[in-house]
Each structure stands twice: as structure tokens, then as C-alpha cells.
């Protein structure tokens, strides 16, 4: 069976002295990782955690976080990571929706927990544990200290759910995506096979561990027997320092993080010679942006990845194709089926835009306690992503927007990503997004929201003229709004379109 706990057990035997992960100055070898996870698993079982129980964890990235993951899944329990930036109300919603019986939290978040517990909140929780030694009550260290470190026997199946990952809730209440042990085991195998990463590599993860990337990216390195440095916080200087100090060979960052890295005045002082591969995705990338990133990093190989929590890994733009196809997300991963469908789920002709649907061993099982949304998202084994895509004549996939973000203007469909790519290619534009707003004559109108580069004097007419020079006239923005920054989701750093649209409507109404 493909059980995630077996990853540590096997590596502890053959490479127990090799470092598995580091967070700041704290570092654990595979042997230490395995033994401490065993001790914690025994402590959790002694406190009452059983197969199928939900174990919620509320914390930032710290050395104990991966231990909780592996301890819980060795028991067949289900980890429920909670965004450490959530308010008390959001924490309460996730814990109660998941019906978590156990809540493990960092000591510095104790006040947040108490607020969430007020007026009978968190009623499903039977046991509260501290992740660290600070604060009152039992800590994981206290519980684990007296436990033996030998393997724990538990009745676990590869099809058991192992994690419920909640979305950031930008379009309503967060949905809990349920993923099996088997799906993430295969995802770890698939990702590193496609990227050519192995046990001699050193990875870097900038994502919080309550986010899909913060769990999936390190897991790929652990499956390969490699090492991974996990940042405590997504700080640009800390990232470059970790690359130099840990001799990192691969890291993935969203485009905005790459912009922050390149903007550091002392960027050239960091030793980045160990890098052989870098990756990006989640937002539009222009050819010029890709070229600039690669050149500043010394021209390592680069990949552009596309996937989602629900669909798993979908496609990869390999290094050999990045220079000529930078505005695509590549071709489907091995053993992943991708098709484009219409609103009824029927496949669209090859030359048409359609919603990206995915079928593989890495997709979600369901949305927790949400059968209606599960049925809308997953049908006959296909997961509908909500992303709109198009194929080119070589089988490369381009993402042209979200189905809910399509702008219907004067009988035409405008895809924001297409316009955003053009905007981002302008040398005076640092960041940009496109949203639709109601329009009396056209139904909807496209609004370009632009962040100028420092010192730029770009005006609205310049922006419109730039778009018209590259796209059909009907695709030009009807309004241009300038902001200092764009609102972004906490975990994935994607533009928070609903919030941005609200800001735009307020500005236009003045």
C-alpha cells in the first residue's frame, strides 16, 4: 500500500543521518524525524486520537509542524491545517465544519483560540494541545517525552483521507478539500519524476504549511530522500539567504515573490550558484518576465507548473520549452488526463476555449460535508477546475482566466488573463489585474488595475494604447485604475479578484 508514513520509515533505515528538513537553525535528520513522529503518534493515540479523527493545527511554519502531519497520518487520522492568519471567526468555522476533535495550536495564538471558544465556540474539540513549550496546558513535548520511538501499529488504508485543505474562501465560505494518502503519495512521486529531482537535491519551500504547496512541495523531497529547507516566513531576503546557506538546487516561487527578490538592492551579493532549477506559476508570466528572472538568477533551467488543490498536478512547461512557450503552462503531466469542457461538461472542439477538467490518481476525493459542491466539481472521475484554457497546435495549454471572471462585453467574451499578460509586458507596469464591472451599454466593461513601477509616469491613455497595440480593439480596458498594491490571498498570493472588484467599484463611484 502507498502509505505516507512508510516514507520516513524507509529513509530512517537507509539514510537516517541525512538531514530531512530545516526551519531556521532547527534541523532534523530522517532518523530523528521518524522517531519523533513515532513518539508523537503514540502520545496522540494515548490521548484518544483514532483513525478518521480530525486533528486541526493552527500555527506558522515551525519544526514541530511536519511531526504533527506524520504522527496523525500514521494513526489514520486526518490533518486539518488552519490558516494562521485567520480571524477567530474563521478559525471557528473551519474547526467546527471539519468537526475536529483535537486542536493543536502554537502558544502565541492562545488568545485567538480563546476568542474562538467564546460563547460555546469550537464545540467539537475534546482536547487542546500546545505545539510548543510556551503557555499553559499540555504541550506535544510533554506528551511525547515518555513514549517509545518504535514503529506504531495502526489500521490504515491508502485510500483513507489524510488531510482536509480549506480554501481561502474568496468566493464564500471555505470548502474543505479531502485528499487520500494514496493521492499525495503518487503526487510526490509524479512531481519529482517530471522535474528530474532526486535524493541529491536540496529544495526550498516558501509556502506556509497550512497551504497545499507547503505540504506537497516538501513531501516530494521527502519521498525522494532529499533535503528541504522550509522558510519560517515568506521573506525575500531569507529566501536568498537560505539558497546560499543550504546550497539549494530547486525552489518554486510565485511571480510576485520573484519580483520582490529581483528588487533587493543587494541581490547580486547572494551566492546562488547551487541552483540548477527554478519554478513558478499561479499567475500570468510574460516572455520578458521569464527572461528577466532567468537572466538575474544566472540562467538556470526553469519550469512553469499548473495545478490546484482539488486537481493535483495538471501540467508542466519543461525547461526546453520555456523560452518559446513562456505564456503557456505546458503539457499535461504523465498519467494525467486533461480536457476542455463546456458548461454541461461536454468536451469542446480543440480550437475552442473551455473549462479545464482533470482526471488522475492525484485528484481530490470530495469536499468535506458538501455533497452538492462535490457533485458540481467532480463527475465521472473528472475534476472541473474553474479555470478556462485553450490548446495550441502543439498541445500546449494556456490558461485564459477563471470561468467566474470572464467579462461579457457587447456580446464578446473577454478573458482577463490575456489582457493581464499584455499589461505585465509594459516596462513601466510592476503589477496588473483586470476585472469586469457593470456597464449600461455593454453589459460589462473591463477595468485595468495597474501598479506603476517606481518613478514611472504612465497614465490611463498610455495603458489603453499599449493594450490596443497588442490585442483587438474590443479587448481594450474601458477604465484604468492605478493602485499602490493589489490585494492578494494570504496563502497562494493570487490576486484577490472579489476584493479588488469591490475596490474598483468604490473608486469608479466617486
What would you note in describing this structure?
The chain has 510 residues and is α/β, with parallel strands linked by helices. The protein folds into three domains: 5-192, 3-Layer(aba) Sandwich (Rossmann fold), CATH 3.40.50.980; 235-365 and 384-402, ANL, N-terminal domain (Rossmann fold, 3-Layer(aba) Sandwich), CATH 3.40.50; 406-508, GMP Synthetase, Chain A, domain 3. Helix 2 crosses helix 3 and helix 7 (181-195) crosses helix 8 (212-224). The longest helix has 17 residues, at 30-46. The radius of gyration is 23 Å and the shape is globular. The N and C termini lie far apart (61 Å). The mean pLDDT is 92.
Number of strands: 26
Oligomer: single chain
Rounded to an integer in angstroms, the radius of gyration calculated over CA atoms is 23 Å
CATH fold-level label of the largest domain: Rossmann fold
CATH class of the largest domain: Alpha Beta
Q: Poorly predicted ranges (pLDDT <50, ≥5 residues)?
A: none
Largest sheet: 9 strands, mixed
Approximate shape = globular
Count structural domains: 3
Work out the strand percent. 25-35%
Helix count from the secondary structure assignment: 16
Give the distance, in angstroms, between the N- and C-terminal Cα atoms. 61 Å
Averaged pLDDT:
92
Which architecture name of the largest domain does CATH use?
3-Layer(aba) Sandwich
- What structural class is derived from the secondary structure elements? alpha/beta
Q: What's the helical proportion of residues?
A: 25-40%
How is the largest sheet built, in terms of strand order? 2-1-10-9-11-12-13-14-15
Amino acid at each position: 500500500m502507498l502509505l505516507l508514513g512508510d516514507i520516513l520509515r524507509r529513509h530512517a533505515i537507509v539514510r537516517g543521518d541525512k538531514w530531512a528538513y530545516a526551519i531556521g537553525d532547527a534541523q532534523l535528520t530522517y532518523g530523528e524525524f521518524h522517531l519523533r513522529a513515532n513518539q508523537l503518534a503514540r502520545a496522540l493515540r494515548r490521548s484518544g486520537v483514532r483513525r478518521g479523527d480530525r486533528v486541526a493545527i493552527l500555527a506558522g511554519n515551525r519544526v514541530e509542524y511536519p511531526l504533527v502531519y506524520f504522527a496523525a497520518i500514521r494513526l489514520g487520522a486526518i490533518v486539518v491545517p488552519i490558516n494562521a492568519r485567520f480571524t477567530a471567526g474563521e478559525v471557528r468555522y473551519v474547526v467546527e465544519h471539519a468537526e475536529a476533535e483535537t486542536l493543536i495550536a502554537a502558544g502565541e495564538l492562545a488568545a485567538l483560540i480563546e476568542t474562538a471558544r467564546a460563547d460555546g465556540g469550537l464545540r467539537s474539540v475534546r482536547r487542546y494541545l500546545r505545539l510548543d513549550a510556551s503557555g499553559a496546558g499540555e504541550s506535544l513535548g510533554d506528551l511525547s517525552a515518555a513514549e517509545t520511538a518504535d514503529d506504531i501499529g495502526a489500521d490504515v488504508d491508502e485510500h483513507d483521507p489524510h488531510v482536509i485543505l480549506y480554501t481561502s474562501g474568496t468566493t464564500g465560505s471555505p470548502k474543505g478539500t479531502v485528499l487520500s494518502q494514496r493521492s499525495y503519495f503518487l503526487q510526490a512521486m509524479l512531481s519529482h519524476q517530471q522535474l528530474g529531482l532526486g535524493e541529491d537535491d536540496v529544495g526550498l519551500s516558501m509556502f506556509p504549511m497550512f497551504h497545499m504547496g507547503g505540504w506537497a512541495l516538501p513531501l516530494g523531497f521527502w519521498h525522494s530522500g532529499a533535503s528541504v529547507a522550509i522558510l519560517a516566513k515568506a521573506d525575500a531576503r531569507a529566501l536568498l539567504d537560505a539558497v546560499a546557506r543550504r546550497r539549494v538546487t530547486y525552489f518554486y516561487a510565485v511571480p510576485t515573490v520573484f519580483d520582490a527578490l529581483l528588487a533587493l538592492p543587494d541581490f547580486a551579493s547572494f551566492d546562488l550558484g547551487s541552483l540548477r532549477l527554478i519554478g513558478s506559476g499561479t499567475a500570468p508570466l510574460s516572455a520578458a518576465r521569464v527572461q528577466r528572472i532567468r537572466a538575474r538568477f544566472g540562467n538556470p533551467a526553469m519550469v512553469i507548473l499548473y495545478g490546484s488543490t482539488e486537481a493535483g498536478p495538471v501540467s508542466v512547461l519543461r525547461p526546453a520549452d520555456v523560452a518559446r512557450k513562456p505564456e503557456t503552462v505546458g503539457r499535461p503531466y504523465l498519467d494525467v488526463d486533461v480536457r476542455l469542457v463546456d458548461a454541461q461538461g461536454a468536451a469542446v472542439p480543440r480550437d475552442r476555449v473551455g473549462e479545464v477538467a482533470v482526471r488522475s490518481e492525484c485528484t481530490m476525493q470530495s469536499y468535506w460535508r458538501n455533497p452538492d459542491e462535490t457533485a458540481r466539481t467532480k463527475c465521472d472521475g473528472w475534476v472541473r477546475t474553474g479555470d478556462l484554457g485553450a490548446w495550441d497546435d502543439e498541445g500546449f495549454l494556456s490558461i485564459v482566466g477563471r470561468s467566474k471572471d470572464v467579462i461579457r462585453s457587447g456580446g464578446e467574451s473577454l478573458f482577463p488573463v490575456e489582457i493581464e499578460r499584455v499589461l505585465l509586458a509594459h516596462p513601466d507596469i510592476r503589477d496588473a489585474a483586470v476585472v469586469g464591472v457593470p456597464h449600461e451599454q455593454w453589459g460589462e466593461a473591463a477595468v485595468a488595475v495597474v501598479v506603476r513601477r517606481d518613478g514611472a509616469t504612465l497614465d490611463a491613455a498610455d495603458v489603453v494604447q499599449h493594450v490596443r497595440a497588442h490585442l483587438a480593439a474590443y479587448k481594450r480596458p474601458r477604465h484604468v485604475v492605478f493602485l499602490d498594491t493589489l490585494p492578494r490571498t494570504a496563502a497562494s498570493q493570487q490576486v484577490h479578484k472579489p476584493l479588488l472588484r469591490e475596490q474598483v467599484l468604490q473608486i469608479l463611484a466617486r
